[in-house]
Write a structure and sequence with these properties.
The complex is a heterodimer of chains A (260) and B (268). Chain A contains twelve helices and no strands. Chain A has 260 residues and is mostly helical. In chain B, 48% of the residues are buried. The chains are: A mainly alpha (260), B alpha/beta (268).
Amino acid sequence: MREPAFVRQVLAVAGMEVRKLRHDPTELATRAVQPVLWLAIFGQAMAHAHALDTGSIPYLDYLVPGILAQSVLFIAIFNGISVIWERDLGIVHKFLVSPAPRTALVLGKALGAGARALVQAIVVVLLGVALGVDLRLAPGALAGTVLVVILGAAVFSTFSLIIACIVKTRERFMGIGQVLTMPLFFASNAIYPTSVMPGWVRAIAKANPLTYQIDALRELLLPAHSALSPMGLPLDFAVLAAALVILVIVSARIYPRIAI
Amino acid sequence: MLPPGDFAIEARGLTRDFGKLRAVDGVSFSVAPGESFALLGRNGAGKTTVIKMLTTLLPPTSGSARIAGFDLAGESAQVRASIGYVPQALSADGDLTGYENLLVFAGLHGVPRAEVRQRIDEALAFMGLAAFAHKLVKTYSGGMIRRLEIAQSTLHRPKVLFLDEPTVGLDPVARIAVWDRLERLQATSRSAILLTTHYLEEAERLCARVAIMNAGRIAALGSPAQMKAALGPDATFEDVFERFTAGSAEAGDYDEASRTRSAANSHA
């Protein structure tokens, strides 16, 4: 009976996010603005400049999975703010006093961020289609995309939770959140291939889970782009899953500290 | 006296330091099953720190406790399964409905699936919230949120219920409504209750036994009637409280409380 109880506890926490989204979907509309700007302005300008070699794929097509992952990252990385807010309210204390294992609590938070990110992913995919990008929308590709989005959101939201448990205040977190988002995003293959980077940036990109998330999204969503997927799906999934396991173990240990 | 292990709460020499500050200093007391017990004291006396230790949120620097027969340090999972907790802050999630708030904790506590709906409906009705079950909690008043939290903390029928200043910040009408519901809860459930408060009336009304805390220690322990009688024929409970909390001057009070809180935050 232990396993179903664990799953139920994870879903109880994750379900909070889903219900909140249902009560107030306006947040989703405001969050759609940024990817629109990236694709419509940055994407069009870069495509026009022909500054980057993306092989046989038009630059805008190349960019869509990158911006999708960016949206997921931005949602997930500020998950820590909501944890600090829940701490101020005393909600975290009540979670921690429940019999749920800490791993169930942090995994529930991660999955909740995944649900939030998923809605955002749908917005970006629809946006891509509207801009005439040739996306693979076969059921298999979409199912894989859903999985990658949830995994990616879970990885970065758990990372964010760990930061929140260390810094503990909203103000400090906001500062650090900005500082972390920049290198995570620019030292990745989101808006250019890693081949254009100097060696040391490429080394960061190679250790950055976001790179693997984007690689997987390109592989799944873009047709005939094998020349641009240096990693391959199995490695992408393995890296994301391993990152999640490590982060969940670390965050489960550190989560109770935010309540003190 | 009950044999050891049969108490709802049994605290032995609980002590907690935050850096150089000793917030709780050798606190010992026991609470029988079904009994209601108050920790009374001014701000900064260490009441909340005691509750945080007894609910497994904060490890004691030294000392030990058993909750519902389980050791606080060695059996914390069993302790958590046996208790309900209402923190000092109004801690329901405003972006969810009252029903949904309870649903989350029904899941976390493993309330049998077939009973979830009925138990939530009953708990909400018991706290006088049935008509607001599907309204967002951010539309609730403070007193309603507090009653919702008590409903949430009793959903899994805990052996021990911890209430940290359950009526702080509520207006008198809301406060009396909370007291009424708590008295009905005392009459119908078998949960022991440990509450902290700085309202003398609250402790006297809800609890047959109280401990007065001052500067991290228990300064007096017994029934309010005994304490009053010991002080003199005309003594009020206010006199008793004054007598045992004297020395922590009014002006130093806030200072000490904020010092405890900031020390608690920076030493976590």
